[in-house]
Amino acid sequence: MYANICVLNHFRRLRGLNTFVLRPHCGEAGPIQHLITGYLLSENISHGLLLRKVPVLQYLYYLAQIGIAMSPLSNNSLFLNYHRNPLPEYLSRGLIVSLSTDDPLQFHFTKEPLIEEYSIAAQVLKLSSCDMCELTRNSVLMSGFPDKWKRYWLGPNYMKEGVAGNDISRTNVPDIRVSYRYETLVEELSTISYSTLLQSQGTQFVSTNKT
Fold first, then answer.
1. In 3-state terms, the chain is what percent helix, strand and coil (to 5)?
2. Backbone phi, then psi, for 45, in 5-degree steps?
3. Percentage of the chain with pLDDT > 70?
4. Among 94, 64, 56, which residue's Cα sits nearest to residue 183?
5. CA 150 to CA 60: how far, in whole Å?
6. Cα(first)–Cα(last) distance of the chain, in Å?
7. 1-144: which CATH topology?
8. Where are the domains of the chain?
9. pLDDT band at residue 104 under the 50/70/90 scheme
10. Is 26 helix (H, G, I), strand (E, B) or coil?
């Protein structure tokens, strides 16, 4: 499927048309290999429940900032009790998560299924207003809406990293939350880069001594 999408995107790009990205249902059930494939090939995924059982893979999703659109009401009916849903843990650890609907005609009871997801999540999962605004901001960032729409909803600088990309008058996400997310991620990536450098230097030193 990924190879076919690449070929199709090349064909459409040459003709000035929009392109497609891979956003599969992934990690709701089935083998962990689905999540590994999603990590390698996807723009973002839906569900991702099984990441809670594989901390290393969850960490890779965090480092790559791969979006996870979660549907707790659907999961509650099929796979995982609402109170055990890992969405709060994912959010607190800095993964890019959002709320979404999944088969709204089957799992929702109102005419506004997405509002239903947000309302129930706020009450059952005890999410703060800041958490809810961050989920909403993530949702827009993960979406396939045109750039001009994202600029309207999030601000003209939304693609910049850290606080520079946050227009609090539109997102309602405090700068201190955005700053914390960005600085923590940069620190993690810097630590990994530094450790890799030390390891490579150590390997070279050992090789030189053996010679």
1. 65, 5, 30
2. -130, 170
3. 96
4. 94
5. 26
6. 49
7. TIM Barrel (3.20.20)
8. 1-144, 161-206
9. confident
10. strand
